[in-house]
Amino acid sequence: RHTRFRNVTGVQTCALPICLNYENVAPIAAIPNVRELNIGHFLIGEAIFVGLKDAIREMRRLMDAARGQAA
């Protein structure tokens, strides 16, 4: 719904206020008008187990794959 509203109004930036994680980020990242993802809390929590660098790297890989970009 948010993205459809943005398309009609011509606003290019869209941020979704939902908590994303490795399991649910791909379908949201694939939405063309979504430019900002709320991933901070998840990444910090995941970093406790795998380290911040690896947590960010994996999230970036998943987001890039969902958008059809090379990681």
Question: Gist?
Answer:
The chain is mainly α and 71 residues long. The protein has helices at 2-9, 25-29, 40-50, 52-66, and strands at 14-16, 34-37. It starts with a helix and ends in a 5-residue tail after the last helix.
How would you describe what is shown here?
By secondary structure, the chain is mainly α. It has 4 helices and 2 strands, in the order H-E-H-E-H-H. The chain has a two-stranded parallel ribbon. The longest helix is centred in the C-terminal third of the chain and has 15 residues, at 52-66. The model has no long low-confidence stretch (mean pLDDT 81).
Strand content: 5-15%
Count of alpha and pi helical runs: 4
Oligomeric state of the chains in view = single chain
Q: How many strands, what sense, and barrel or not for the largest sheet?
A: 2 strands, parallel
What is the overall pLDDT average?
81
Number of strands: 2
Biggest sheet, spatial arrangement of strands: 1-2
Q: Give the structural class.
A: mainly alpha
Main attributes?
2 strands, 10% strand, 4 helices, single chain, mainly alpha, two-stranded parallel ribbon, 71 residues, globular
Q: SSE layout and pairings?
A:
Layout: H1 2-9, E1 14-16, H2 25-29, E2 34-37, H3 40-50, H4 52-66
Parallel strand pairs: 1-2
